[in-house]
Amino acid sequence: MIKVRNLKKQFGNVLVLNDINLDIEKGEVVAIIGPSGSGKSTLLRCLNLLEEPNGGTIEINDVKLDTLNYKSRDAYQLRQQTAMVFQHYNLFKNKTALQNVIEALIVSKKMKKENAIQIGEELLKRVGLEKQAKQYPITLSGGQQQRVSIARALAVKPHAILFDEPTSALDPELVNEVLQVIRQLADQDTTMVIVTHEMQFAKEVADKVIFMADGKIIEQGTPEQVIDHSENPRTQRFLRQLV
Ligand code: ADP
Ligand code: MG
Questions:
Q1: Which of 8, 59, 123, 231 could form a disulfide with 64 if both were Cys (CB 3.0 to 4.6 A apart)?
Q2: Which residues pair with 7 in a beta bridge?
Q3: Do 7 and 19 touch, CB atoms closer than 8 A?
Q4: In which compartments does the protein localize (predicted)?
Q5: Quick one: how many helices (H) and strands (E) in the chain?
Q6: 37 Cα to the center of ligand 1, angstroms
Q7: pLDDT of the residue at 51
Q8: ipTM
Q9: Residue ranges in the chain whose pLDDT is less than 50
Q10: Strand (E) or helix (H) holding 111
């Protein structure tokens, strides 16, 4: 479903992604862990071309792109394959929860408003927010806002959802309601890539864990292999610092 080969990204002359190779199967949940500054966000952002890579190929669900030579149409197609959930939700403040969820359906997908509203209401129900449909983001808790942003990501029916530290900005008591929604998606075989510092959660939902440091994938494997029994000193050092 997702195949990345020799992906490179530099900011100025700093190499932030150094030859990343990645394979993700349909329905797989992949957790990316690693120290701050290791390139986790940049990797997610390159997958949907929010950042322009400096080399390598990205293939998502039959859309294949040579990052050094592609047409804007191919970039558009590639972007359609995934949806992103950000740490700080990034909702439109002047739109209600429902309007946020259906915005892309109306603007990009040119869907009729009645149809979009029906889909939007169903999605809000799925994340437990049917009663908050008409509320503006400022009147919602952080956990509720993040659940709206997950409903918004689901609205475009992406082939994979990319989460960048979805619970890092939340007060501790709000983390679980968001993780619960992600758990449900995992149970429904949604393909997801999740950058997270929640090791317990990663162990529970991830089929595969990737440890990144200094722009490289240092190690990948099952949660047991990488989180519980890593023999890599760099991984061990990172995990020790978390506790
Ligand atoms: P992580 O998400 O693992 O914390 P990032 O992908 O955000 O790491 O950042 C990787 C490196 O790239 C860091 O050194 C960061 O400072 C740098 N970086 C990220 N975005 C930019 C940018 N827009 N301009 C310059 N440097 C950046
Ligand atoms: Mg980051």
A1: 59
A2: 20
A3: yes
A4: Cell membrane
A5: 9, 10
A6: 6
A7: 97
A8: 0.98
A9: none
A10: none
Query: Does the beta carbon of 39 lie inside 6 Å of ligand 1?
Result: yes
With CA atoms as reference, report the closest residue to 144 among 164, 118, 165, 171: 171
End-to-end CA distance of the chain: 34
Query: Within 13 Å and on the Cβ side, how many CA atoms surround 100?
Result: 29
pTM of the predicted model, to two decimals? 0.96
Q: Encode pLDDT of 144-166 as tens digits.
A: 999 999 999 999 999 999 999 99
Ligand nearest to the CA of 168: 2
Ligand 1 atom with least separation from CA of 35? 3
Q: For residue range 71-115, what is the model confidence (pLDDT) as tens digits?
A: 999 999 999 999 999 999 999 999 999 999 999 999 988 999 999
To test the pocket of ligand 1, the residue of 8, 11, 51, 214 to mutate (highest count of ligand atoms within 8 Å of its CB) is 11
Percentages helix, strand, coil for the chain, rounded to the nearest 5? 40, 25, 35
Contacts of 107 (CB under 8 A, 6+ apart): none
Place of tokens 């061990």: 236
Instruction: Establish whether residue 186 lines the binding site of ligand 1, counting it when its CB lies within 6 angstroms of any ligand atom.
Output: no
Contacts of 45 (CB under 8 A, 6+ apart): 51, 84, 164
Q: Which residues contact 25 (CB under 8 A, 6 or more apart)?
A: 1, 191
**Other Cβ atoms within 10 Å of 180 Cβ, number:** 13
